[in-house]
Amino acid sequence: MELSQQSKTVQYSLIALTKYFLKLGTLGFGGPVALIGYMHRDLVEERKWITEEEYREGLALAQLAPGPLAAQLGIYLGYVHYGVWGATLTGLGFVLPSFVMVVLLGMAYKLYGGLPWMQSVFYGVGSAVIGIITLSCYKLTIKSVSKLETRAIKSSWLLWLFFLLMAVVTAFTKREEVWLFIILGLLYMVVKAPPRWIRKTNTSLSVVLLAGTGFWQMDTGKLWELGLFFTEAGAFVFGSGLAIIPFLQAGVVGEMGWLSEQQFLDSVAVAMITPGPVVITVGFIGFIVSGFAGASVAALGVFLPCFVFTVLPAPYFKKISKNESIRAFVDGITAAVVGALVGSVFVIASRSIVDVASAVIAILTILALIFIKKLQEPYIILFAAVIGYCLKTYL
After folding, report:
1. What angle do CA 305, 299, 130 make, to 5 degrees?
2. How many angstroms separate the CA atoms of 358 and 112, rounded?
3. Is the pLDDT of residue 47 over 50?
4. DSSP 8-state secondary structure symbol assigned to residue 254
5. Which residue has the higher pLDDT, 250 or 1?
6. Does the pLDDT of residue 14 top 90, yes or no?
7. Is the pLDDT of residue 6 over 60?
8. Domain-by-domain residue ranges, the chain?
9. Are 143 and 32 a contacting pair, CB within 8 Å?
10. 3-state percent breakdown (helix, strand, coil) of the chain, nearest 5
11. Which helix (H) or strand (E) holds 373?
């Protein structure tokens, strides 16, 4: 039975739900954890459009399947009462506002990125982003692997081993291997919850106005490469949108050479100052590489697997979510991905923290996020931009 048949009464229209996700995509700052919290508060507690059980099922599926967490949960909640059309419209509503914003920022970056004032702004912003990602890595680690307590570490020692292995491998090789994530996921599944068949066998704008912004820039030869690369990233990234950073950093900077290290860091900064899913940074990267067409292909490549992996299993998820082998496989992959994220942060920081001032900005960012509970990332980015401009202009 499809999810759309399970609810006796639908208390909202598809138009109303789509409007909600358009608003969330426009004003929803704070990253994936904050976004899924907004959905629970607004749709479950206040409006009562979604039941607590439906929300929890959606959150579980979003954690099990690859793709950005908040976007997947939004797609699932759209599917609950309105099927594929609901999933499609809520997904578009959630992603479209931030996509438009990163394209506009990409145009500004193309116009002014070479000017000294723009470089000084991103000097401060880049340092703050390192601080934000570092703290996010810590939060992801204690959530995905275990808390930093002796008992918890002992019980999750294998996940910690995967985590440390991928952190070291990524830091030294400066790249990620998808096959290694899959191997570690399968290994953890075999150890913790082997499938039955393993147990049985006992084995283990206008043309004039847009001129100079790069909007119409298009390298047709790169579009296919962009599509393949970002589809792979979208299909093999679990959990928070920040988990995609290792793939992007290794691919667009190391392997493909599409962006410089500084341009990549700037693209992460753009994701931090825009609302909606953090993974929308791929739109900015695609724009820098091949204009609006590149931005569209990159965004489609990342979000299409997310959509498919949410909609296809949705009708059968009650049964799938109870499969211990699948949960163990995802746990193993998640620990490896978070480890790779930590390793990639080390790589990025070693190239971006270039002096004492940039190090101080990164450290102050971490402290501000820890001790000022309601402080949101966009305000930190704005403050860091001002500091960077002042340091480079007047000192």
Report:
1. 105
2. 22
3. yes
4. I
5. 250
6. yes
7. no
8. 3-394
9. no
10. 80, 0, 20
11. none
